[in-house]
Design goal:
mainly beta; 6-stranded antiparallel β-sheet; elongated; 14-stranded antiparallel beta barrel
Amino acid sequence: MLPHAPPFDVARSMWRILLGLSCLLGLLPQSGSAQQWTGTARLALTGGYQTNTYLDPVLRSWQDRSSTPGLAALTPQVGIARKARRTRLAAAVRTRLYPRRADAPQFVQGHAQARYRLSPSWSVGASGGGTRLRLGSSEESWWGLPSVRWTPTSSTAVTARGGLTQRYVATGQGTTVRQDSRLAMLNMAFWPTDRVRTEGRAYWSDGRTNATGTAFGGTGVSVRGVYWPTNQWSVEADVGVEQVQYEARTTRTRLGRGGLKVAWHPRTAVTAFVQTRASTARLVDGSSTDTHVAVGVRLRVRRVLSGTAPSPPRRRVCRAVENGVQIQVPYDGPGVPHVTGDFNGWSLPGTSLTQTDDGTWTTTLSVPSGEYAYRVRIVDGDERRWLSLPSYADTADDAFGGTNGVCTVP
């Protein structure tokens, strides 16, 4: 039975979870390479309308009571991360506030992730965390999932996760039901081009409740795609199906979900979006559907807290060699730098660089004499980002407000 707790303090719970996860990061083994600590703060404001008030669209779960057709949520999140050449550690905590709901749920979640790169193609990691929800009764859940990631190419990542989850639900009779589950997931992300990302996911779960010994389980698959027509706009679509069955029931609960989202990114720290989602469920006592439309904005602030990366020695990024040019850039972080530019028609992700003993990455390109604009892009599993060139690099502004490097081959 869950004890009667004092009033739920969201801010205090957030900071306690973040402090605990930060201490966990500090206890994990560190790599001997240079490191960098960063802190992030995010705030999302979402509002919209739902057709089925029994299905909470923000919590994405079926609730025991109805809410209002209008939905509004405020989601603050804070996090801390440490990146090094082979390791990536991160912890974050978030909560959701519901200004329009008289029976506002009290929700807080914290999670931590660790990843260690064994080779350019293989890495191992683990993720864990917990969620606390109060909506009339109390629900708490915890999970721990070791993982293995394989990146056979710079545009493909396959991740396998498996582990245990626990969920505690307080019933109306004053007792607590514990649900223990085993969970396995397989995720594949693929970039057909640098502006299109696709992702497929399959999961399997098997569990049992402690009170009655009732067995339950589920399976599901989902597909998601994101397209960036420009650097400031993205379109995302997803669809998924799953089924859940309890031992005491002969009928399986089948769920279907789909959604479409359009986002505008006028600044790195600002994202405005509009989305629509539809859900349907074939339950034991009938079927139920829901459609909701929402608009919102997300704000993000990221700041480097500290770093031990040594200042790179002054050198030239581009150096003419026989039959071409050698490109050498300093970089000490996750992922592999790739160079693209006029010499390959700006095809992405570009030519990969090779790490040297002094912390730089280099490649040699066979190109004729001339002047070439280029940029360096970091490919890190399913993430892509441009790398800022060192201050001593020769640069020129491009037609889109960015900055390109310039190589001259005599």
